[in-house]
Amino acid sequence: MAKAFKYGRKGITGQLEPAERELLRSLFDDVISMLEPDMRVDEDPLAALVGLDMQAREPTDRALRRLLPNVMKNDAEASLEFRRLTERSLRESKVGALKAAALGLDKDELVLTPADARHWSTALNDVRLVLAERLDIRDDADAGHVHLMQDWSQAEDVESYLALVYNFTTWLQESLVQAMLHSLEPRR
Prior knowledge:
With 188 residues, the protein is mainly alpha-helical.
């Protein structure tokens, strides 16, 4: 069973069982596949290098839209322009964090540097955003319903399984953020 992240002499540490590591690796890979930008044959290499994507459009997948939201709700044209200028680099940054976090999944005990902890926090947040969208979490009542699912033996369908995975990643992220905050406190 996973042990919560904590801050100590070695830095931020946590422990995951092999099945938990494989679950996280699979989740990270799924989100990476959603985020990796499509390479086009006719793409300008300089534009790609500096992060421009003049073909970018608002995603049709709700979960991807949650990861890459419009910046202005009431101005579709300005949001589209901003998306074209920034989306590629945002996608690459998120993919980089997910891949960096996945690298740490080869060991039972995780020992995170401050940079590793930021990657993990970003990766877990993006996974949770996708799961929340798949579970149709819109408000506190929806979240409360999902948090009621705590027993893996009760998982009877995809939704209950996703709820358990969401709860696990939420717990893991909460413990990581608490350890990160604890690492910022002055030592006595």
